[in-house]
């Protein structure tokens, strides 16, 4: 009986041992199958690794180049600043700077003189007045001596190749005093645009000579006069070459033309206020004078007599 009771537990231990061995073998077999699958790792591991590599912010910013800033759309260009000169000249703020434009500051222009240059009728110009010894009144315009010393020299810019010669200018000082002068001379640089160099006699009508330099305003004037225009040929003029000058014109002179077989030929104006015919065209023939307003005067019968002022019977209209 004793031996029988001891054999029954032994069989149970063997059976348990066999089950343990079997379970262990099955586990090893499953592990080998998993390890030997293609990819060498479980699906869950590969999926997690792929998700990490494709979505990691640090990985994308490390290899991606910065995106360039977009260019402005052509539909909405950058606004441009309108230059001050584009504003209407009748507006006070539109007056150009003398340093930038090399011109006086007009207020406002009438535009009634299509042939006017820098000095326009109906406009008031700001500037300064200085004074000089005009002596006999002659100057760069070569009008010759004059008993009337209410004369002035126009600054270089507004002299404009002698187009200012003969112009009558009304000058006003801040005190309210005024004087009318005739342009017979040029004030060279550094005379600034808008500046008038007055004869001492004219300056004294505005202020004491000791002032030296005063602020002024000035404008073009079309005076009353009973005189008529005169014509003078320059020294050395002949039928083969001549220089022609007009004197005593009420309004600034814009053109001087000579008659030719084909009509009228415009002569070139010099800085010394003569119109030249270098080949003699029109010398001694009919002349046509045009002022800045476009009015034309025809003069006949003026012979080539150098250095002689020959009067005519015509004069420009007062404006």
From TrEMBL:
Residues 47-114 have a biased composition (Low complexity). It holds the Pfam family DPBB_1. SUPFAM superfamilies: Barwin-like endoglucanases. Residues 164-217 form the RlpA-like protein double-psi beta-barrel domain. It comes from the Bacteria. NCBIfam families: expansin_EXLX1. Residues 40-120 are annotated as: Disordered. Keywords: Membrane, Signal, Transmembrane, Transmembrane helix. The chain crosses the membrane at residues 16-36. CDD domains: DPBB_EXLX1-like. InterPro entries: Expansin_CBD_sf, Expansin_CellWall, Expansin_EXLX1-like, RlpA-like_DPBB, RlpA-like_sf. This is Expansin (Peptidoglycan-binding protein).
């Amino acid at each position: 009986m004793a031996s029988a009771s001891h054999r029954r537990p032994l069989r149970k231990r063997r059976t348990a041992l066999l089950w343990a061995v079997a379970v262990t073998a099955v586990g090893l077999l499953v592990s080998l199958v998993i390890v030997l699958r293609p990819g060498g790792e479980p699906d869950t591991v590969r999926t997690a690794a792929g998700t990490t590599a494709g979505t990691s912010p640090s990985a994308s910013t490390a290899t991606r180049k910065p995106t360039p800033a977009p260019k402005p759309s052509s539909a909405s260009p950058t606004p441009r600043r309108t230059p001050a000169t584009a504003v209407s000249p009748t507006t006070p703020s539109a007056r150009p700077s003398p340093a930038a434009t090399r011109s006086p500051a007009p207020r406002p222009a009438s535009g009634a003189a299509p042939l006017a240059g820098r000095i326009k009728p109906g406009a008031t110009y700001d500037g300064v007045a200085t004074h000089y010894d005009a002596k006999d009144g002659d100057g760069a315009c070569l009008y010759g001596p004059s008993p009337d010393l209410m004369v002035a020299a126009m600054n270089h810019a507004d002299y404009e190749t002698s187009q200012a010669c003969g112009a009558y200018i009304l000058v006003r000082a801040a005190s309210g005093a005024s004087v009318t002068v005739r342009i017979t001379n040029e004030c060279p640089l550094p005379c600034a645009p808008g500046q008038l160099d007055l004869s001492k006699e004219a300056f004294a009508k505005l202020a004491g000579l000791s002032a030296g330099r005063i602020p002024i305003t000035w404008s073009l004037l079309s005076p009353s006069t009973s005189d008529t225009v005169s014509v003078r040929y320059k020294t050395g003029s002949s039928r083969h070459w001549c220089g022609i000058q007009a004197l005593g014109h009420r309004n600034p002179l814009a053109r001087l033309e000579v008659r030719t077989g084909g009509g009228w030929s415009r002569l070139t104006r010099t800085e010394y206020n003569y119109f030249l015919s270098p080949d003699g065209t029109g010398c001694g023939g009919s002349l046509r004078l045009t002022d800045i307003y476009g009015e034309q005067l025809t003069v006949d019968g003026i012979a080539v007599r150098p250095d002689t002022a020959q009067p005519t019977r015509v004069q420009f209209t007062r404006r």
